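F.,

This is the one I mentioned.
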């Protein structure tokens, strides 16, 4: 499996992760909950298990557990900087619906 095809990191997201992580990794998880059934969670971490998938790009490291990767297959992590605020966003082709803030989604 080419993990680059399973989950990608945009240039903007890689730049932001590298700037804020200071040697740590950004963990991207999918948890049950939110408005639509699943929600994204982002945390900085130094802990990487043998089962985790690690995606590196331009000095940025993103870590995803195998269960979350099933729901993130083909997705891309992006970083948005708008007048309304700055935030990480996941462009997920598996999401059938999502909430207005973009942090929760459903696959039904």
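My design for it:
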């Amino acid at each position: 499996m080419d993990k680059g095809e399973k989950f990608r990191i945009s240039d903007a997201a890689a730049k932001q992760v590298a700037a804020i992580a200071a040697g740590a990794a950004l963990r991207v998880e999918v948890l049950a909950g939110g408005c639509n059934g699943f929600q994204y969670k982002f945390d900085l971490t130094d802990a990487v298990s043998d089962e985790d998938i690690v995606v590196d790009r331009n000095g940025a490291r993103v870590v995803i557990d195998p269960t979350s990767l099933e729901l993130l297959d083909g997705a891309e992590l992006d970083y948005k900087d708008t007048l309304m605020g700055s935030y990480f966003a996941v462009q997920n082709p598996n999401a059938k619906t999502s909430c207005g803030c973009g942090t929760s989604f459903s696959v039904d």
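The chain has a mean pLDDT of 87.

Talk soon.
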